[in-house]
Write a structure and sequence with these properties.
Elements: E1 8-9, E2 12-13, E3 22-23, E4 26-27, H1 28-59, H2 64-84, H3 87-90, H4 93-112, E5 124-125, E6 130-131, H5 133-150, H6 159-178, H7 183-198, H8 203-222, H9 225-239, H10 253-262, H11 289-297, H12 299-320, H13 326-350, H14 368-382
Antiparallel strand pairs: 1-2, 3-4, 5-6
Helix pairs in contact: 1-2, 1-12, 2-14, 4-5, 4-6, 5-6, 5-7, 5-13, 5-14, 6-7, 7-8, 7-13, 10-11, 11-12, 12-13
Length: about 400
Amino acid sequence: MTSSKTMRYEGIDFGRLQMRSTIKGIAAEKKGFIITVVMLVVFGIVITMSASISVKIHNGVDITTKILVNVLVSIVMMGLVMWKVPIEKWKKQGVIYPVVGFVLVLLLLPIILNIRINGAYRWISLGFFSLQPAELAKIVVVAFLAYIFSTMRHPRPTMDELLPIGVVTGLIVLFIFMERDLGLPLVIAVTVLAMLFVTRTNRLVVVALMVLGLMLFAGAVMTAQHRRNRVIQFWDRKTGVNTLSFDKIPDDQIGAALLAVSSAGLKGKGLGNSETKFSSLTEAHNDFVFSLIIEELGLSGFIIVAILFTLFMVFGLRMAYTAQGRFEHFFLIGMVFLTISQAVLHMMVNVDMLPAKGFGLPFISYGGSSMVSHMMMVGLAMTVKLKGEE
């Protein structure tokens, strides 16, 4: 898997991806990565500030201050991670398994304590901040995968090594599902499958897991009426048939998002000039922020988002393939897969390529826990030592 000079994957020499220049001891990959993250966060602040009027109109709440508080808390948490728990500490068995156990308990707390908000057991109120344990679980999944893959004794994972992955990720996904959240389990499942593919896991095993995952996902959809209605509504839009009676049609955020996108034109309506956020697009600040970006900024908004996440992926993978350690290598790959898969799923839902489901756009959507989890991963990434760094 590794050599003294460069990382190799299935005969591909990733040494060509290396950006060996360093400035004051910090690799160019890392500089590009953090600059990209800063641009994503700043862009997110601008867009969510524009969307905040929607929340004030529909819910009577002014979130402008909360947006800045979320960003500040996220930056503080990123700094604490870099200072107190750098990535070097996560690669130890005596650390990763207790962290997994702690997160599993944290996931069950809202259910055990019967903390139900908006019909779901997802949040723990900390006064000035609401913590969503499932968001922290994303970090733990990536770190645990990195731990298992970095300690492999063979070129590809064996069944003995895949078993703990199945148990830990299975429990995390189950507990998140018990919180009535189907979006994050899907993001985690996509990330795990992508990591298994990258580590050259037996293709039959990967296909079997994909089939099993699809069956479980279909079963999860069928267990709740509102999920079934969303799938039926999605199918109705594609076929032009009205299957659902009016009283069973869910809040049509997809319809509002499509209206926002279709009315944008190439240039958009201008920053702050969205019309749908004043009427039907009540989640313009969160799960449907991408449609707001298109409505207000048009094609340029799409290009900005596409370029920023492409840069995030490129710099993240370059860091992965120049990392000095195997754990760091796999963690960075997992972080990139997790972030990009969530971003892609968010955009697909916003343009009606998937049934309605809550996927925030990383670094951009309003949501304190999501911002904290992604910034903590950025903090861990910044503590990775790359080849050529002092």
